[in-house]
């Protein structure tokens, strides 16, 4: 097996083996160090000597021995912890502990930023440097964030939660959605996309879906990611400029990904209850079903946003409903709905509210108002790609 193939296999096995060790020993950080040492040994031996018949068992055995060696070398913990550890490898269960590890990384005592970083590190297999680059923070700051997250989990107890706990599953889905959104539309920096983050979020969502195939919200989230990510190549020009949905060349959308996402969206709606990810997937599927922007079923989109607004009130949902309403009843109706967000501190000066208001004012013929809002939106965003687009719109309406 080539070194690249070994690397792919190890990336798949690492969270499984880490899950086994954390379940057995209960010490997240020490177990992660032991697994990384085992991975290093595998990356050096397997390309030369061949992959063992049971690679997960091999990694678990080596990692367990490394962990026991760590305990031996730690004089402060030797007496109280070594007695509880055995030198033989933990029995490798038939079940995969990756999902449980993901739940542990999304511990409710952690902030969303810490949950996201720890998930990418422990489950996604990204290095601290890779995560730091993705979120445009210094590597040292990211390392400190991940270390604090591990310490908080240790203080709270590293017990594995049950995957049937809907409250904990909600945290997991939220973290995966945050990772995907940051990859699909970067909150800052020169690029609109961060493809590595979007791909990683989809990979993790597929993993969760494979283990919880009957959960409608898990299915809905995966569908939403696929339906959204299928449009990625049409969202920017070759020079990196943003292309809004209405102006995108839909022939460049990834049809295979759209078909898979649509089927998953339909499957998710077959459940007895509706959740926010199912509804957002249904909205994305409605957009995907339209051959042109003019053929979009805006009444269906608006109806779905109304339901979403009732079950998961959120200013961004109201913002998107205003766009759909404007397509049905005209820009003034959309502007009236947008005005209800002016008192919401989360959105009042947000660049997305300002940019949508500018767009609707432009459609209503209020070019001075559109110019002012495009200008303010450009100042408010940290994304260089969005800033360029908004500045160009401001210049066009001022001509």
Automatic annotation (TrEMBL):
Family: Belongs to the sigma-70 factor family. ECF subfamily.
Name of this chain's protein: RNA polymerase sigma factor (Sigma-70 family)
InterPro entries tied to this protein: DUF6596, RNA_pol_sigma70_r2, RNA_pol_sigma70_r4_t2, RNA_pol_sigma_r2, RNA_pol_sigma_r3/r4-like, WH-like_DNA-bd_sf
Pfam families xrefs: DUF6596, Sigma70_r2, Sigma70_r4_2
Family annotation (PANTHER family): BLL6612 PROTEIN, BLL6612 PROTEIN-RELATED
BP GO annotations: DNA-templated transcription initiation
A GO MF term: DNA binding
Naturally occurring in which organism (per UniProt): Amycolatopsis echigonensis
Keywords: Sigma factor, Transcription, Transcription regulation
Domain DUF6596: 168-268
Domain RNA polymerase sigma-70 region: 9-75
Residues covered by the RNA polymerase sigma factor 70 region 4 type domain: 102-153
């Amino acid at each position: 097996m080539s070194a690249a193939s070994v690397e792919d296999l190890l990336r798949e096995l690492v969270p499984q083996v880490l899950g086994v060790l954390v379940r057995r020993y209960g010490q997240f950080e020490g177990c992660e160090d032991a697994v990384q040492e085992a991975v290093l040994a595998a990356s050096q031996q397997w390309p030369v000597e061949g992959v063992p018949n049971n690679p997960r068992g091999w990694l678990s055995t080596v990692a367990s021995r490394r962990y026991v060696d760590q305990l031996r070398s730690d004089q402060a913990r030797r007496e109280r912890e070594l007695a509880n550890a055995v030198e033989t490898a933990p029995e490798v269960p038939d079940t995969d502990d990756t999902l449980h590890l993901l739940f542990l990384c999304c511990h409710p005592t952690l902030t969303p930023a810490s949950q996201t970083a720890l998930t990418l590190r422990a489950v996604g297999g990204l290095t601290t440097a890779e995560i730091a680059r993705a979120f445009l923070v210094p590597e040292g700051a990211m390392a400190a964030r991940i270390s604090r997250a591990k310490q908080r989990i240790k203080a709270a107890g590293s017990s594995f939660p049950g995957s049937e706990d809907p409250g904990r599953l909600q945290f997991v889905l939220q973290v995966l959605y945050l990772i995907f959104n940051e990859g699909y539309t970067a909150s800052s920096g020169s690029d609109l996309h961060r493809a590595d983050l979007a791909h990683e979020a989809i990979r993790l969502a597929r993993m969760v879906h494979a283990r919880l195939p009957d959960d409608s919200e898990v299915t809905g989230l995966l569908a939403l990611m696929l339906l959204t990510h299928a449009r990625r190549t049409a969202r920017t020009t070759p020079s990196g400029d943003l292309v809004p949905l209405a102006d995108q060349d839909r022939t460049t959308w990834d049809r295979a990904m759209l078909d898979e996402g649509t089927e998953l969206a339909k499957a998710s709606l077959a459940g007895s209850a509706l959740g926010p990810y199912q509804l957002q997937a249904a909205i994305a599927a409605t957009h995907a079903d339209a051959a042109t922007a003019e053929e979009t079923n805006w009444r269906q989109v608006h109806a779905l946003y109304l339901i979403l607004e009732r079950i998961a009130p959120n200013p961004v949902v109201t913002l998107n409903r205003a766009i759909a309403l404007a397509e049905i009843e005209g820009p003034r109706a959309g502007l009236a709905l947008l005005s209800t967000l002016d008192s919401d501190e989360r959105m009042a000066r947000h660049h997305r509210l300002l940019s949508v208001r500018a767009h609707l004012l432009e459609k209503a013929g209020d070019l001075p108002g559109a110019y002012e809002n495009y200008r303010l939106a450009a100042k408010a965003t940290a994304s260089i790609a969005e800033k360029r687009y908004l500045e160009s719109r401001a210049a066009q309406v001022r001509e």
